[in-house]
UniProtKB/TrEMBL annotation:
It comes from Parnassius mnemosyne (clouded apollo). This is Transmembrane protein adipocyte-associated 1 homolog. The chain crosses the membrane at residues 33-54, 66-85, 105-127, 139-162, 182-207, 219-245, 257-278. The keyword Transmembrane applies. Its main location: membrane. The keyword Cytoplasm does not apply. The lineage of its organism: Eukaryota, Metazoa, Ecdysozoa, Arthropoda, Hexapoda. It is a multi-pass membrane protein. It is found in: Membrane. Belongs to the UPF0359 family. GO terms for cellular component: plasma membrane. One of its GO terms (molecular function) is G protein-coupled receptor activity.
Length: 375
């Protein structure tokens, strides 16, 4: 038995490129190629976020919906912890036991943040799509954090207590981060892939009649990409555990780089790019409106306010919605709930002027009806 927590096959040969790239240091500077190729896309994405930070801040202040701030915070948290991991891994000596332990803890920490975000997106889309309250968001984040914590603790324990010999470096006598071992990696990837494929099938099964499923294509493309990624990762881990060593390692190298480098930009592009790019963004997930559902006490969406003018101008149609049920982010045909001060600034001059004229005309009659004695 060669692998303590993996396969019955001997470890991958040291001279294979797919393993060599995981530990090779540039000019013995502790800067590993693997950390560098993960650092570069994350650093470029941080630069992109910094350039657009002022515009994003104005957009977030202009909306009363907390869901966008939640996604934006998750994106920042993921990319920052990824940068920290890469920077620390480039400074510590992984050959030393303490340095190797720190490196593995950082890998597990990054996985915790990414997995919590991954599950939060799915739950927001499926279970809480019709809600946009701070309490529901807190419950979702708490639930996903606990599940992700259990997952990463299991992964970290397996990684530290029973490291997989597939990722052992004989020449330097230390272990690379092995994602909890091939059996754990294979089984967890397979479970996630099955869950995502089931989600993709929901719109085509009778159960859809009882669920408020998203209708936007971007949500299902996001699920499809994760399903394909986890499937490919399960195949690679399976090849490492029971089949061809070299090809399996190359497969998981590619899937690992894609996940740790491009997953956070994928979340931003799928769920935030439209919000930050247009003045009146469409809803994140479209749903069939449910009229009989009571709103939460802490619901932050604002009620619809109609114009006082009975003769609508072009500007009225630009600045005004048409349905009283479009105040929440996830309901069909809705628009993003706006801050009252910001929405008041967007009202057309004709509507404001018309509303003032009506108030002036109505006030005297109301006053007379209250103070004149009845005959």
């Amino acid at each position: 038995m060669y692998g303590i927590n993996g396969s019955d096959f001997p470890p991958v040969s040291e001279d294979t490129f797919c393993k060599y790239v995981l530990y090779y240091e540039i000019n013995n500077s502790r800067v590993r190629i693997w950390d560098l190729i993960i650092l570069i896309p994350n650093a470029l994405f941080v630069l992109f976020l910094v350039v657009r930070f002022n515009k994003a801040q104005l957009k977030l202040r202009a909306t009363s919906s907390p869901i966008f701030l939640t996604f934006y915070s998750l994106v920042w948290g993921n990319v920052i912890i990824s940068l920290v991991r890469c920077a620390v891994s480039m400074t510590v000596n992984a050959v030393v036991p303490f340095g190797g332990l720190i490196d593995k803890i950082l890998w597990v920490t990054v996985r915790f943040f990414l997995l919590a975000t991954e599950m939060s997106v799915v739950i927001f889309g499926l279970a809480f799509g019709h809600m946009d309250s701070r309490s529901s968001i807190r419950y979702v984040l708490l639930a996903t954090s606990l599940i992700s914590l259990a997952f990463t603790i299991t992964q970290g324990t397996l990684e530290i207590v029973m490291p997989d010999d597939v990722f052992h470096i004989d020449t330097r006598d230390y272990d690379l981060f092995g994602h909890g071992g091939m059996l754990f990696w294979f089984s967890s990837s397979l479970v996630f892939a099955i869950i995502y494929f089931i989600i993709l099938l929901l719109p085509w099964i009778p159960l859809r009649e009882y669920l408020a499923l998203p209708t936007k294509l971007s949500f299902y493309l996001y699920i499809l990409l994760l399903a394909l990624l986890d499937t490919t990762q399960a195949v690679g881990a399976g090849l490492l555990a029971w089949g061809s060593m070299q090809s399996g390692l190359c497969v998981v190298d590619v899937t690992t780089w894609l996940y740790f480098s491009l997953y956070t930009p994928l979340v931003y592009h799928t769920f935030l790019s439209e919000f930050f790019s247009v003045s009146q963004p469409s809803i994140m997930f479209s749903y069939k409106a449910q009229m009989d559902e009571p709103m939460d006490d802490d619901q932050v969406s604002l009620p619809h306010q109609q114009s006082f003018s009975s003769l609508k101008t072009d500007s009225d149609y630009i600045y005004q919605s048409n349905s009283v049920y479009d105040s929440t982010l996830f309901e069909a045909g809705g628009t993003t709930p706006m801050n009252p001060v910001y929405s008041a600034s967007l009202q057309s001059p004709d509507s404001i002027a018309s509303g003032q004229s009506i108030d002036i005309g109505v006030a005297p009659s109301a006053f007379q009806s209250q103070h004149m004695p009845s005959t």
